[in-house]
Amino acid sequence: MSLDSLAPALLVGACIVLVSILGVRFAGRLGVPGLLLYLGLGLLLGTTVDALSFQDAELAAVLGYVALILILAQGGLTTRVEELRPVLWPALALASVGVLVSIAVVTIPLLLFTGMSTHNALLLATVLAATDAAAVFSVLRKLNLPARLRTLLEAEAGFNDAPVVVLVSVVASGAFGDDPWWLIAIRILVELIGGAAVGIAGGYAARWLLPRLALPAVGLYPIAAMALVVVAFGAASVLHVSGFMAVYVSAVLIGSALRIPHRRSIIGFADGLAWISEIGLFVMLGLLADVHRLPSVIGIAVVAGLALVLLARPLASFVALTPFRWPWRERVFVGIAGLRGAVPIVFAAIPLGLGLAGASQVFDATLIVVLVLLMVQTPFLPALARRLGLVQAGATDELDVESAPLDRMSAVVLALDVRRGSGLVGVYISELGLPPGSVVSLVIRDGQPLAIDEHTRFRADDSLLVVCPGERRIATEERLRRVAKDGPMATWIEERLPERRVEPSPASWPRQALTWVSGRVARDR
After folding, report:
1. Is the dihedral of CA 48, 278, 57, 120 positive or negative?
2. pTM of this prediction?
3. What is the pLDDT of residues 254-291, one digit of tens each?
4. All domains of the chain in start order, with CATH
5. Is 225 in contact with 265 (CB distance < 8 Å)?
């Protein structure tokens, strides 16, 4: 590229980004994921604009790795250790045992019904085994799922890139048939453990270093934090262990630290980088595809997609989660919600860049499977979650509010919608019983902010902003969920202390109920 071609390239690139950003809003109204829009835009541009033709699969894989690093970093920064700890072992089981089950189940029908070679069938099954972090983060965080279920699927997406990329490299190199299975298993285990160790070291190093830097500008802290995450990836790669595992673990530790300066600036910066990475990654992969080759692999894609969705994913989730005794409804959701996106396509570009025989067949089939799943599977998840009774009325999200007072308080802002049928409808602010230091700071009704006091009563379709200390976030969320479930009666069902809840004795219930009713009547008057 020369200086003369720089301006047209920047103009085209900026227009693509703007169209993608504006299209997200339009796609959301149609129930179509924005990721599908990006991929479709790349396919359209690659087919109609010859100047945008992009056929360098090796460069696509490299750029895809960079984008995945930034996407995983954003996902890790917005995942707290307290949320990850209860689901750590189930997530690791899904990311390891689940991946192996998925590969085996998808490979068998490909060999039986498509006539693919063993090498290519195994390669296609391997690249399809990884769930996509960008798809999981963007879709599941819009659903009011139980925190542990959402964190399980996000952690799985963060963890399973590591073993899959090792398996893709082994299969693509031809070493899978030469090396004994136990040697490959040990290699994967060492890479995962080593990557986690590097991530832990990098995360704690960042938690120690960032508060002591005393940088002259706020904007330097997000750059420093992301640089430290990238350092974790580089250090892990140099040591020949999993860089993706190091990125996710270090980002989780950094994002969970309460004393990291300008934490919200860091998360906001990472969120912006993740968005531009998703847009660029999907558009680039669409440009890399050749639509004229796609019809020839539709049969292979159909077999692989059906085997993946109907057999491999449900069986993988059942096998991986059975030892942990998860409820059947959550297991069913996990068995359906293994979202695919750019990650399988990036991994499929690795053998394509190496020029392996049949690599284009694997890449094209992967692209078709991802396209179909984005169109069919993603819009189906909200309805499935409601059908299984997994949508929570009192679920909250943390807002990225850039405010110095909140940083000094180590406070977070939670957003909560009062849905029709929720127990919060008709509850007074004074009846919430929030933990000490947690307050309702704003009520939005009919699109307008409402002046509030202790006599403010919530209505359906209200939106609340709750400010709470960082260390009391979990207790505040639990209290809001309790009131959303039990309504104002929750004020005497349990004590209001956040650190230690003691169920009142049955003998005290009539007295507490009478006190609550009399106070309620007095306020209504």
Report:
1. negative
2. 0.75
3. 988 877 888 878 888 888 888 888 888 888 888 888 88
4. 56-387 (1.20.1530.20), 400-524 (3.30.70.1450)
5. no
